[in-house]
Amino acid sequence: MTVQEKHKRITKRNRGRNLEVILKEIQQLMTEWINYYGIGEMKGFMKNLNGWLKRRIRQYIWKQWKNPRTKRKNLIHLGIDKRKAYEWSNTRKGYWTISSSYVLHRSLTDKELASRGYKDIALQYQFVHSNY
Fold it and tell me: How far apart are CA 16 and CA 129, in angstroms?
């Protein structure tokens, strides 16, 4: 089973887990994985995996918000204008499509994900790899 398949299992949208629990499971998996494969040269792979994982987490958060009213309220809370939040919260696009859109990249920034507990795996890999 590849690391991406393991992440898919952890971030499955219907698991009903708290985001903190999901991020803790991801961190545990990546710590083990990076410690095992840290000696190899896979900077590009880690960068791509990190981007994919952030998109997957944004998708998970968007799915948790469920209702357009909740989405609008949370977008406003994250600093989006009320009018834009109303427009964006009523989209009919799928969760995966929205996860890579301007909507979530503007509201759920990398800084916001870090404040929620996401640790950048590309930086973690770089730190471990520099010690070899």
Answer: 34
